[in-house]
Structure prediction request, 1304 residues.
Amino acid sequence: MSAPLLHVDGLTISYGTHAPRLQALHDVSFCIEPGGALGLVGESGSGKSTVALAVLGLLDEGAHRENGTVRFQGKDIYAMDDDVRRRLRGNQVSIVFQDPFTTLNPGLRVGRQIAEPLLVHRAMTERQAYDECERLLREVGIADPAKMMRSYPHQLSGGMKQRALIATALACDPDLLILDEPTTALDVTVEAQILSLLASLRRSRSLAMLFISHNLGVVSRVCDDLCVLYAGRVVEHGPAQAVLTRPRHPYTKGLLASLPRLGERRSRLSPIPGRLPDLREPVAGCVFKPRCTFALPSCELEQILIDQGDGRTSRCWRSRELADTPWQLPGTQRQAKSEQQGDGQDRRTQPTERPLVQVINLRRTFQVGGWLDGLKLDISGGGFPIKKEPALVRAVDGVSLDIRPGEIVGLVGESGCGKTTLGRCLINLITPTEGSVRIEGEDLLHAPRARRRALLRKAQIVFQNPDSSLNPRKSVREILARPLLLHGLASGSEVDRRVEALLDMVQLDKRYADRYPHQMSGGEKQRVGIARALATEPRFIVCDEAVSALDVSVQASILNLLADLRDELGVAYLFISHDLSVISHIADRIVVMYRGVVVEEGSAEQVLAPPQHPYTQALLAAAPVVGRNSGKPAPPVVSRRLADVSRGCRYRDRCARYLGEICDTVAPPTQHGPDGHRIACHLPLQMLADPAQRPPGPASQ
Amino acid sequence: MATPLTPSLRARWRLPPGLAWGAGLLVLIVAMAVVGPHLSPYDLDAISLEERLQPPSIQHWLGTDEFGRDVLSRVLHGARSSLLMGFGATAISLLLGVPLGLAAGYYRGRIDEIIMRVIDVMISIPPVILGLLILSVTTPSIGKTMFAVGLVYVPIMTRLTRSVTLEAAAEEFVQAARARGESAAYILFSEILPNAWPAIIIEAGLRVTFAILLGAALSFLGLGVQPPASDWGLMIAEARPFIDSAPWIACAPGVALCVTVIAINLAGDGLREWLDPRLQGRQS
Amino acid sequence: MFAYLVKRLFYVATTVAVMSVLIFWITQVMPGNVAYMILGDFAAPEDIATLEAQLGLNDPAHVQYLRWAGGMLRGDMGMSLSMNQPVSAVLWGAVGRSAILAGISIVLVAALGIWLGVYGGVRRGRLADRIISIGTYINIAIPEFFWAIVVIMLFAGYLNWFPATGYQGIEHGLWAWARHLVLPVFTLVFGLIAHVSRLTRSSVIDVMQSQYIRAARARGLTERRIVREHALRNALLPTVTVLAIDVGVLMGGVVVAETIFSYPGLGRTLIYAIQQMDMPLLQACMMVVTCIYALSNLAADVTYALLNPRIRYGNAADA
Prediction:
């Protein structure tokens, strides 16, 4: 057996100059064989990025390596000279960071930056380096390398930048590639392509990988082995498929149980209660104990990694005993109302009920820049040489949809599809350019001012970012009381009573009323945001990526809460998300948007099982799902130039079932399937619905 | 995502050394300005021709000037006018600049364009020129100089207020307030301003030093405080002919200016550190 | 980029136009009748009336303004009341002399200021940085006129190395010309260097903490190469734009220093015009200063546009 390529042993790292120090990593050990792929999984605060930096020797100044070694090809990198270590980076060990937008120097051309490792480590001339870069860019799937190299970073999309960064990481043919959340900032379809690319590069170059991510689905697609980190400790380690299908450590079980699964419509997720421990305080016994359902008094002892056989380890002395026991919630947790009532059916509305919210042909166009922008020098024409052509963005371009009382409508699409704009039009944060919004039959935009305030009481919003959705200078009580006072719903001591009732509804103890946002965790802040939305007793709430900024375990509890509130109060939601698994879990009906238009709409089963519109199919194929076969290739990359956005089908630039001229010139008609299923496509319904007709390869351009 | 709880109360109240020293020094200076003149045994313009141009001694701690007036007393008096100039002018620039900045940052659109274009024009003019322009047409006095200096700094305060207002307005809790149907006044004063004022106060603190220096420069040129009142800039101007024979007459007010400005800068930097924990340890 | 430049040009033109109105309006309001100034306080009322009619002082305000503005645009700035010369002759001489001072000073400020800023920024927290920081801190607190006086006291008075005041054209000899410039340049450089160096330093520190610098390290570049090729370019962008503005300040805004050194530049001419209540000279002088300042702001904007790829190239479609 060959020596491992990378051997991390007992790594212990802390941050900070004053006591108490923050323990980022504690006794972390793992190996990667040449050509092997290890996934490092954990939520925020688990220390996974610290591992990446530690392996490269790039820790910040405030970090102390208290213990442990990192051996690359048998040599201890911290025993090396600075210069020797530097020569490893970009050369034998490379890294691809998370955010392609900040990882490239905005002031230099892309080509110059990509070529750097070659210039530094291989002493090539500029000409040689540039030629080699063009070859590398072609290898990572860039069609026009020369043009990309001449471009500046801001002129490229996120996916292209990330490919370029992968190319530069591979420039000197490294033995190990570290990837720190490489696809987190990208759309799901782009993510799928990048993951495919990585898989094929691994095969063609016999590249070893250390893949760091919080997303279990992504990791399962790429990695052979998996290492689960919690609070800076390795809690489980083993072959990826084994760990994901038969987890041994309670944390891993909890993590998997709290994931919404695409295609599995469970009525309730099982989140992990509690929150991450404060890493500045010393840990007594098992670090996961405070949140573990299976905790027993013996868990007070420090836990070590115990061999589970088949190359698996777990840091829990009860692992073998609980091998087949799934994650459970403690008995005090609430059950879904519907489960208690035993009817097993989520509360659905009858199709004949009058819609609560009606969106009629909504359009919203933005002009790029101010009134002096968009000026162009045009000497060709006969008139005045300076013409004004402001660039227009059609964020929402003719969307109609209905939301019935008590219904959860999931609005899904990638970045730039207009879903956020649409959501904000429904509550009057953005004024539509055309079209109308009706709440309980009344037109929102043309209502007189006094009436509009009353209407807005019925429609509220929960935002994405818990750090930004609460005013840091107000206490929870002030935040929750304000809507009550503003709309005259309560006064005096009644206000306090109502505030407590709201906190109770979102399962927060009433002591939270006097806390300030910086004293609460992300999940708690999001609950306050939901309570604030509930204060005016709305009929309808827009959830704008309400769980996207939360960790998986916290996300699960918020999703449960939202479902419970719908069951108890009969509130309808427009649930906006880019994450198809979340949508498939919670939504009754699904609306799929692409570039400002609705491409498909229907009940959750109609839209997802099986997906019919080509875009829906692409989204589903791209979504990383735990346990999905890692050998499956990603959908083929299709890319055409869109000459004129306003005519024809929006999706024709990426559609795998492109028909030709008709898609370019005529907007696709909305076809109606059974039970309110709508699809916008030129292909007739039978062809869309027939799985045999699904194309295996890309259509001709 | 779990955020760590606040640092302990003790840590939050630990003052940065810069703030402590600077604020302390400043308090001392202000105290001297207010109380000092009453304590000094000499009158501000007590002319005593026998004691002209005397170097520092026991009777006159900072010597005497060309009219035999006690330099220390004049420096203490001068403190009043310089500090008044600094704080007064800054107050004016806040009074005018902050509402403009709030309006521009919150309403955007045409109001923003108009305000910003006017500000751009004003910023294009060197401060001294603008001050001169205003003062060249009237008989200078400390009040008018203060107003002129204040006006000079309105654009900067407007720009700063506008940019923090833009930042705050982009936050989701402001969007939440708009979704509730709150009035603009409520949003500006109850949601945005409480988050914006630290940056504004810090900038205002630094502006005080610029205002003091600009005011002194204008007085130096004869366009500020008029004799026989004393003002540090004016004192330096009057001391010019005697720079070789009696340097202390110019040095005393000059050093006083420096020390005051340094004290305010220290206090301002310390305040910034204290109000924004993220900056601790980053910049000097 | 074209749209950006048009925008900036438009604002410059607006600024100059608005300032011209302001300058004209304020100086018209100034006490002291122009005719009395020329003929003396005790002149006969009829003579005053004749002169007023001759000078067009009885016309409505906007007519007078347009006449003046038209003259300005043609290069005719009127006659100086106190010096009995055409204003343009006086002014262009002053502009030239100010330009010399500004030119030499800006080069020194740029070189020293940037070097100090980068040196301190790269070695943040260490002894060299602390020393430089303290130095600039104190420097900012010293008013320019006080420093000028101290400089004169030391180098002209006590050591007698250089003359305290005045100016000698280069026709008198290179050394004679140069020695009159030393002290003013020294003072001006001192006045600006602290701001430039602090700005550069904080800019360098900001840049060195950004993600792309970390990514460059991860590619195996030496620290030296990183600073040279990645950090400097981006860190100097704010500094360069400020320097462009400083050129304008050095030309027209150093009234105090020019007064102390009796250096016959634009600033001193301006003060003189105010003291003499010489209206045409005052108006022209302020307009010239405004134009120079506005142009230097424009230069700063153009430099920024050239150096910032986002503005220079816009969002061209990619492959």
In short: The longest strand of chain A covers residues 392-403. Residues 686 and 693 of chain A are 9 Å apart (CA to CA). Chain A touches chain B through 47 residues (CB under 8 Å).
